[in-house]
Structures are given as C-alpha cells and as structure tokens.
Amino acid sequence: MNSYFVVTIQFMDGRFHGKMEGNKPEWPPSPMRVFQSMVATAARSKGGEPDGLALSALRWLEGLAAPLISAPPAFYQDNTPGYCLSVPNNAMDIVARAWSKGNYTNKGDSSPATHRTMKTVRPVHFMEDRPVSYIWDVGADLSEDAKKNTSTLQGLARGISSLGWGIDMVVANGEVLSNTHVKELAGEKWYPGYQSGDGGLRIPVVGTVDDLAARHKGFLKRLEGNVFVPPPALTKFEKVDYRRSIQPPFRATASFSILKPDASGFQPFAVTKWALTVAGMTRHATANASKQSGWAKAEINSFVLGHGESRDNKEHITVGNKRFAYLPLPSVEFRGHGKSPVIGDIRRVMLTVFDNEENNNVNWAKRALSGQTLIYENTNNTGELEEVALLSLLPSSDTVSQFYTRSHSTWISVTPVILPGFDDPSGFRKRLRSGVTADDQKRLLSELHERIDTLLRKAILHAGFSAELAKFAHIEWRKGGFCRGIDMADQYGIPGHLKKFPRYHVRIHWRDGNLQPIEIQGPICIGGGRFFGLGLFAAMD
Q1: CATH number at 3-76+125-244
Q2: Would the pTM count as exceeding 0.90?
Q3: How many helices (H) and strands (E) does the chain have?
Q4: pLDDT at 159
Q5: What does the domain layout of the chain look like in residue ranges?
Q6: pLDDT of 227 strictly over 90
Q7: pLDDT tens for residues 302-318?
Q8: From the CB of residue 383, how many other CB atoms can be counted at a distance below 10 Å?
Q9: Rounded to an integer, what distance in angstroms lies between the CA atom of residue 131 and that of residue 172?
Q10: What is the distance between the alpha carbons of residues 343 and 318, in angstroms, rounded to a whole number?
Q11: Whole-Å CA distances, 50 to 42, 45, 59, 77, 151
C-alpha cells in the first residue's frame, strides 16, 4: 500500500485572493505556491538561507510527480460586485521628481496620496469550511532518506502562515498518510493531467529550489553599483492541467483550415449537405498519411478508419473510443445589428480522440496532415477523383476553433444529436394525435419528455463524461437550433444506419453536484455519428 506526503492548508477567512496569469482567479491554489511557501519557511528559520537538511528535503519533493489536490467547493463570478481598495498607482517616480525640484508641499504631484487608484477585488469564496490538501505519492516503502525528508517537510509545512495574498492567512500541517486515510479526506478531488502551455496550475520540478534561490539573490543585488539589474525570471516550473473527478480528461486536438487547392483562400462547405463528406474526405487523407508514415495495416484499420473487423468479415465491429474523430467545424460568425453570432459554412476540420490515453496520435496528425489534400469522389457522375481542398494546420489561438475547445458552462449543438435509441417506443405521439383528455395529454407529454431526457443523458455517458455530469446537467432540446444559421435537425445528412433514430438540437448547461455552473472543456460531441461530427457542440450561451 502506497504512502502519501500530505500538506494541509486551512484558510482562516473562507476566501482566496490568488490569481493566475492574465489576472484570472486561481483555484485550487497551485502546488507551486505551497512549495514556495515551504522554501520561504526554510529560509526564514535559518536567517535567509535554507540549511542542508531543508534543501535536501525540498529537492526530494520537487522531484516527485504532481500532487493530487483535495479542496472544498468554491465559486467565483466576474459579475459579482466584490469590494474596492485604494492602492498606489505605481507612480512614485512622479512624486520623487517633485521632491527633487524642492516641492515639499505635499500637494499635487508631491503628494503620494494623489497617485492612487481603486482596485476591485473579487476573491474565490469557499462553499464549505474545509482545508485544502496537497497529496504527493511517495511510494509503497519509505526509505530512511524519505522518512528523514518527510519529517523535515512536516516542520516546514507547519511554518506556512499565508498562501496567496498576505491577507490569505492559513494554518498548515504536514503528515504522512496511508491510502485509506487519503481516501477519507473531505473535499473535491483535483487530478493532475497533461502539461499545459497556456492555463494550468504551476508545479515545482527538478531545479525549482535552485532557481528560487538565484532569483532571490538577484532581487537582493538589483540595486548594487547604482545600476538597476532586474532579478532573473523564474523559469524552473511546469504547468499542469488539473481537473475535478466530475470533469472529463483533457482531449488533445488538431485543427486545420480547409483551403482551396491553390491555397488562395478558404474552401467553404455547406453544413447540412457536406459535413459528412468533409469528415469522410479527412478520414481518407488521414489514412493516406498514416500509410506514408509506416503505420501497420491493423492500426490504420482500427484507429484511423474505425473498423474492428477484418476485411473478410462483413459485420461491423466497433473499436470504442480508441480511434480518431473527424469533426468538421461550422464557422461562428458575427453579423448584423449587435453582431450576434451566426453559424456559417464549414471552413475548418478538427481531429481528436475521445480516449485521453491516445493524445500522441493527435500530435502526429498535426505534423502529418498539414498540406494533405481532400479528395472527392464524384459518384453521381463519372466516379472520378477530384482534389477539392487543402488542409493547413491552425494555431491554438484560432478564434473559431476556440468555440469548440475552450472551457464553458453552456454549450449548444451546431449539428443535431442522434439519440441512442427510440424516443417514442410506446407510441405516445400517435395516442396524442388520436385525441385524449387534458390529464392524459399532460401525462403522455411528461413521459415523452422523460424518455428523451433519459436518452440524452445516456448519450452524455456514452461520450465519456462522468455519471455526475450526466445526472446534474440541465438539458434543453428542440428540432430548431439554438443559434442563428442552424438548420432544422432533420435537414442534416445522416449515415444510413442512423436514419431510423430521432435527432434534436440540444443545449446543455453543465452543473456540478451542488447545482453550480461548472466549466467543461471541449471538444464536446455526443450521440450517434459523433466520430464524424454529428452532435457537435459550441461553447455559447
């Protein structure tokens, strides 16, 4: 049974003011904050320089994998009023210039009070008075060195007095716990995922302690010799995406613009008529690229083409989520009065995998598919092959692609969701048309509503989302779209084997177990045909 080194942080005020890059609220507080606080404790207790015992323990800790975090539910909203503080406006150079000219009137530019500004503060609020715990896995058998290190780190953890802003006062503790005791820790569990170049929480890595020491020394010597030398930036850390157990794992994506064959501009395709064809052409291009890259035939057949059966077997065998999904992306455009969003033609296509263990293949697709051509077989006429478009890799900053990949609490379908079953097996609609009493009508409509609701939640589960997300999501559905430019659900091209199943446009408001909005990262694609872009959602209210 594994042991765990656990640092527990109890906030005294039920609020946290720390921010991430871009002044975004940070929750939970990053492991890097805890690590830096322990380094500060070690330095403070030894007159500014951590001793050898503390350095050894901290270097051991920075070499461990990113910790699991257990934290109380918390909320933050941009539209909450918060409160304001009067703070210096970083303009003391103006005051100093006035003083150097002999202006000591303490009025106008010579008064520091003149150069102040109001700062709006919106902290993260805890919904429960519980501590935040950082849980490092230290293995099954602790060596003597590991025991010595954990003992030292326990003392350092108990010296932490604040985390975040100076007003975020805490009481901290460190201890070694068994797997059984870790499972009993209260709070939401946040699991480390993949390295993140943009968002994510900072974690220490090998070399972080030495980098912090170098930065501190640079800060102390920044004004030596009457010359200002900025302290070196902190670079020895990584960013890791953390997710709650309710949230789906991070899914890598590869997005491509669909250009004309001569790359002179976009090659648009109408969504209702061409979406499935674009997905099919992209799959064909991926198969060609995988052959050129030396993939095994069996791997191409299953992962690229989605076939679990052999060529001699006519009965299709599914391969689950371990395969590419080809998602044509309708453009999100802003037109008309007020520039409200409109769903337009397909000008991009995205590849992803709904199995989080296969992200390396998505990275391969980024390298292999850019420059590949989309080939259309004109089966209605001559059957000739025609190069109709060219794929070009898009950066993650592409604004349209971000509607399908960003984190958001409300998502709408831009292509219809095909239900995983019949919504009216008992013939409720036929009975409603034949004429029933008002009470019977109400009951039948309620049962029909319940049936569709159940099937949609089933589709969410099939797409790899947690049972908790499926249970607490607020779901709306109808035949018409939830945004301008979306056609009626029955007008979209559907594979022959799925035409018998009903389809709807859907809006999902994601909620957690406390019925609070929770942001879910895309791409989101549910229902039948999701590997070809049916049931695709965009982050939009």
Answers
A1: 3.30.70
A2: no
A3: 13, 24
A4: 94
A5: 3-76+125-244, 83-121, 253-539
A6: no
A7: 899 988 666 565 666 67
A8: 8
A9: 9
A10: 32
A11: 5, 8, 12, 40, 16
